[in-house]
Every structure is written in C-alpha cells, then in structure tokens.
Amino acid sequence: MEYSPPPLFKQGASARAKVVFFSLIALILLVADSRMRSLTTIRQVVGTVLYPLQVAALLPRDAAYRVGDYFSSMSALQKENNRMKEQQVANAQTLQQVQQLAAENAQLRKLLAANERVPVRSILSEILYDARDPFTRKIVLDRGSQHGVSPGQPVIDDIGVVGQVTRVFPFTSEVTLLTDKEQAIPVQVVRSGLRSIAYGQGHSGSLDLRFMPANADIKNGDILVTSGIDGVYPAGLSVAKVVQVESKSSDAFARIVCQPMAGIDRNRQLLILLTEANFPVRPAPEESRDKKDKLGKKHAAEGLKEPAKETPKEPVKDGVKEQKNEAVPAAPEQKTPAAPAASPAVQKPATVAQPNAATVQKPANAPAVAPVAVVQPKLQATARPAPAAPQTTVEQKARTP
User: Fold this and answer.
1) Which three-class secondary structure state does DSSP give residue 240?
2) Coil, helix or strand for 274?
3) This prediction's pTM
4) Residues forming beta bridges with residue 273, ordered by sequence position
5) Backbone φ, ψ for residue 276 (5° rounding)
6) In this structure, what is the dihedral angle of CA atoms 358, 364, 370, 375, given to the nearest 10 degrees?
7) What whole-number distance in Å separates Cα of residue 173 and Cα of residue 165?
8) Measured distance CA(309)–CA(159) in Å, rounded
9) Which residue in 18, 27, 120, 224 is a FRET match for 170, CA 20 to 30 A apart?
C-alpha cells in the first residue's frame, strides 16, 4: 500500500533541497552586492514597491504610539501649566517687591534732598500704624523721646508739612495731621503775602481759611506756605493749595478751601524736624501793670508816713502809770494852758514826755517823788506835716479812769 500524498498536495522537491538552494542564492547575492554593488537599483525598486506594504503593516503600531503620546503630552502640559502659574505668581510678587523698593528708594532720595534744604536738624522716621480713634487724623511713628523727639515738633515729607508731634513716648510718637479738625497752622500766601491760619476739616482731607474777609486777595491756585510767626514751623514750608474761593456780598467772611500739598495719606517715610521752641517772655497784662503801679505808689506813700508813726508812746504810758501810782489822791487839780502846735517841719512829742514845775504842782505836805525818767525820741524831719496830737497833762491822764 502506497502512502504518497495525493496529487493536490504534492510538494515537489524536498524541503532540505529547497533550503540548500535558497541559501546558495542568498550567498551569491550577498557576495555580488558587497563586491560589485550591482543590486542597489534592485534594492531601491523593491523598497519602493514594498513601502506601502510596510506603512500598512506599521499602522496599528503608530496608532498605539500616538494614543500614548496624546495622553502623556496632556499630563505633561498640565504639569507644565501649573508650574508656569506658580512661577508667574512668584515673579509677580518679586516684581511687586521690586517696584515697592524702587518707590521707597525714590522717596528716600527725595527726603534726603528735602533734609538738605531744611535749615534745622531732622531725623528720618517710618509710619508704624494709624491711630485707633476713627474721629481723628493721627499716625504713630517709630521715633520717640530716646531719639530726641519732643511735643510740638513739625513733621514733613519731600513736598511740605504733614503734621505736628502731639504726644511722645520713649520709642514712639504720635503725630496729628494737618487735616485733623483740631489742628491749625499759620500760613502765608506766596503771591500776595497775606497771612492767615489754616484749620483742618477732619475726614474730608482738606483745609479751610476761616474769618477771612470777602474781599481778601486770595485766588484759586495760590500756594500757602508756613509764615514762621508761631515759632514752631520754619518759614517757607509748603502747606496747601487753594482750590475753592466763595465770596458772597451777604456774608462777612469768604469760604476758602485748600488741598494739602504733602502726601499725607501716601508716604510711609517722613522727616521730624528737631526744632526748639524759643518763645520770648510774655509781657504782663495791662491790669497787672496798673496794680503794680498802684501798689508802688501806696508803698511810697506809706514810706513817707512812717517817720510820723515812729513816735514812741509806750515809755510815756509807763511814765504815766508810775506817776499815777505815786501821786497823792488829795492833790489839787490844776490845769495848764495847751502848748503851741509843732511846726510843719519838726514833730515834737507831747508835753507828757517832759514834765516840769508848771505842769505838775504838788501840795506842801506831799512826799518827795523822784522825777520820772522819760525817753525822749529823736526829732525827725518829715516831708508832710503830721497832725498835732492832743496834749494832755500828767494829772489829767492820772484822773481819767
């Protein structure tokens, strides 16, 4: 029985013979291509013919790669976008800090230039915070009494006056701004030289000139500077600019509104002028002068009357008492005529001081009495005649109860 394949599946030469045959062909082609370079054209033609087949065979692979690249690129882009946003925020913050430092540097340069223009010594200060009172316009600076700051000293910026130091602590100080409703500053119009006082209007952020006549020489755009007559603010510092003038014939005073020129609400660094208030001695009021004049005249008059009052009376009284004790009760009463009055220039003591035989007579049977020693005062000349004292004898005084 024969087991040969049917004619339909007849394979021809054996597989071994085919491998040997094609291997020889391949070796021949390799040698010919490497030695003679004769298969280059054939290779190009074959590559061109097979290229569409290669593209078609690689389509699934390329599609898979593209899908993977799409998702990976989306994730990478998302990460990069987040990173760029963070970098942008950091750059924006850095840029803001650089701009702030640049503005601060420019402000400090301006303050340095202003410090050179001011004739008095000054120190640089920085605003710490605003005061907590909502009804006032005050700020707190980082300089105090330990740095030489005292109440009343003015505070300025590179343009003009900002305010005045009103309260001082060891390391901080409180400054009242010009726009505070209780703050006032003497000013002068540069154009006309007119002097006035500018008052703050509170939270409106402006100043007004009060009690100015309706015909005052003030116009819109006039510059107001410190007049220097108060002894606190140096003269010539810029204060405000006139922005509104209302004059009505029915009103006695004009309404003048001014806008501060200094950066009251903008600056962070300020200058404190270390001025010393040297006020002259205040003259005494007229009433006290009149009182002093009257007191002086009164003392002068009393000084002129003092010599007349120096006449001693105590010795005379003592003498009278001794005479009364030693006198005889039954002595006859005799009256003597009054002595003439003393001259206007010389005041003589009363006759009591010089008893004699004419004024005192004793009876025959009276015991002997020693004469009473009476101190005779010195006679002093006076400018005015003193009134004559009443003259009384020793016996009359002795009989008086």
Assistant:
1) strand
2) coil
3) 0.52
4) 122
5) -120, 125
6) -20
7) 7
8) 75
9) 120
Instruction: List Cβ neighbours of 62 (8 Å cut-off, separation of 6 or more).
Output: none
Structure tokens at 370: 């020693």
Where is pLDDT greater, at 321 or 303?
Answer: 303
- Which phi and psi angles does 269 have, rounded to 5°? -110, 135
Q: Which two tokens stand for residue 274?
A: 């270390």
**Alpha-helical regions (H) of 37-118:** 40-117
Bridge partners, 245 (sequence order): 256
Largest CA distance in the chain: 228
Supply 124's token pair: 């640089």
Q: What is the rounded distance in angstroms from the CA atom of residue 332 to the CA atom of residue 362? A: 8
pLDDT at residue 276 tops 80: no
d(CA 292, CA 382): 26
Q: CB count, 10 Å around CB of 322? A: 15
pLDDT band at 321 (very low <50, low <70, confident <90, very high): very low
Residue 213 is which amino acid? Answer: P
DSSP summary character for residue 141 = E
| Separation CA 206–CA 161 (nearest Å) | 13
Q: Which of 195, 114, 194, 102 is nearest to 155 (CA)?
A: 114
Backbone angles phi, psi at 137, to 5 degrees: -115, 90
Give Rg (Cα) of the chain: 62
Structure-block tokens of residue 43: 């290779």
Residue 218 gets which letter from DSSP? -
The per-residue b/e assignment along 351-378, b for 16 or more CB within 10 angstroms, e otherwise, is: bbbebeeebbeeeeeeeeeeebebeebe
Cα separation, 217 vs 190, in Å, equals 11
Q: Rounded CA gap, 256 and 210, in Å?
A: 7
The Cα–Cα gap between 62 and 55 comes to 9
C-alpha 76/C-alpha 91 separation (Å) is 22
Q: How many CB atoms lie within 10 A of CB 212?
A: 20
pLDDT over 50 (residue 327): no
The answer to whether the CB of 336 falls within 8 A of the CB of 359 is: yes
Q: Is the dihedral of CA 263, 268, 269, 275 positive or negative?
A: positive
